[in-house]
UniProtKB/TrEMBL annotation:
InterPro entries: Pyr_Knase, Pyrv/PenolPyrv_kinase-like_dom, Pyrv_kinase-like_dom_sf, Pyrv_Knase-like_insert_dom_sf, Pyrv_Knase_brl, Pyrv_Knase_C, Pyrv_Knase_C_sf, Pyrv_Knase_insert_dom_sf. Gene3D superfamilies: Phosphoenolpyruvate-binding domains, PK beta-barrel domain-like, Pyruvate kinase, C-terminal domain. GO terms for molecular function: ATP binding; kinase activity; magnesium ion binding; potassium ion binding; pyruvate kinase activity. This is Pyruvate kinase. Its EC number is 2.7.1.40. It comes from Vicia faba.
Amino acid sequence: MHSSPLLLEEPIRMASILEPSKPSFFPAMTKIVGTLGPNSRSVDTITRCLHAGMSVARFDFSWGDSEYHQETLENLRDAIKTTQKLCAVMLDIVGPELHVVNKTDHPITLEAGTLLVLTPDQDKEATSNLLPVNYSGLSKAVKKGDTIFIGKYLFTGSETTSVWLEVSEVNEDDVVCLIKNDATLSGSLYTLHVSQIRIDLPTLTDKDKEVIRTWGVQNKIDFLALYTRHAEDVRHAREFISKFENLKQTHIFAKIENIEGLKHFNEILSEADGIIVSRGNLGIDLPPEKVFLFQKAAIFKCNMAGKPVVVTRVVDSMTNNLRPTRAEATDVANAVLDGSDAILLGAETLIGLYPVETISTVGKICAEAEKVYNQDLYFKKTVKYVGEPMSHLESIASSAVRAAVKVKASVIICFTSSGRAARLLAKYRPTMPVISVVIPQLKTNQLRWTFTGAFQARQSLIVRGLFPMLADPRHPTEFDAGTNESILKIALDHGKAFGVIKPHDRVVVCQKVGDSSVVKIIELED
């Protein structure tokens, strides 16, 4: 039983299935990234999304202009003020994505068994026999027999707006394809994906760079989601964003979307701050029976590296339905049991009919899966993987988690300035929340003084089990006993206010005093 990733005890667990889920301030330890757009951009809807459990807001620049996304972001800021809930901002840029543009916006009917020409001439009108694409090198990249997929942007896979093509011949710049299934392409923008073929386009396009240097810099984005094929893509993006003072602390999350990214996964993981397993495109590039293997392998590697990993495309059917399918509900739970830090919702919240309900439902499924997560097995596996000698900080973090589990602490409180100590605690997947108290530090660039801390607090909102609070910057960075007790009292009051700390609870505190790292156990009085 203990070798299983599940903790199931009969008959208690079977009976507990019938018990209603208990609401709590922390709906789940696993975080939820929501994509904001047409159906989720009003202040009221965003407010309800935050209450439902969204902790990171994703802005997808595959569609919409900067002004549109700026309005949405201003609404998010209003909602944050109203709810008093922190929310991080993720900018997702397009990258080398191929599109078919239907300027007429009229539905295009495609019939199985007929031929379709893909042309780089974007002046031509999209018809049932010809589709213009935004890439002049397509004819050089493909050969007879290759598979091409075209779907409505943010397709869920269940609609008839997705078509599979097989390349029949290449005619100069045009690619002639055999249509494999009946489909109706509705809308103005479609995604084109060539299975297992490298597209020779830069990772950061000129348009991407413009978005980063304007919208990204202006809004001091917390995360940049980057289409990644090689570790060099991450290095190049980091070099670019480091030119801007406002983005020097921005974390880069590598989106693994195709075979190239899969082949270079280990090198990408070493360079990136986190990983997004983009199962939409991966599900096209990989045989269906192999997708779960990559998901489990990628999540395991991220867990062992102590870097957050995000899984996408879990409840596609909730774009149009109030409840997920049975398979989708199980898929969300399995992502949690595999070790995911966060679940990313795309079409479900962007254009879906039930954005708030989707976030709430996913949060409830995550919370239930976390109850049966075998932390003891995972802890031993992680310690064995890390090996000896451990680094000083890793040893402190693992000891704090083990102590918290053994004494059945209600929370772990961690003092941190960079966020690294808190992320290391999360790496060992404690069964209780970690309140990460971020201590601001005063820094200067020779022109002005600024406090750090806000970035670090928000960036923990994508890490499983971390719940940040920003300490008062008037407290000195170098702790003394009095300062520690003062901040600790605020952190305890914070936990009590939200119902996660109660009288007689035990709390594990992880902090640095002078040059020493200290783990202590506190038993609370009435």
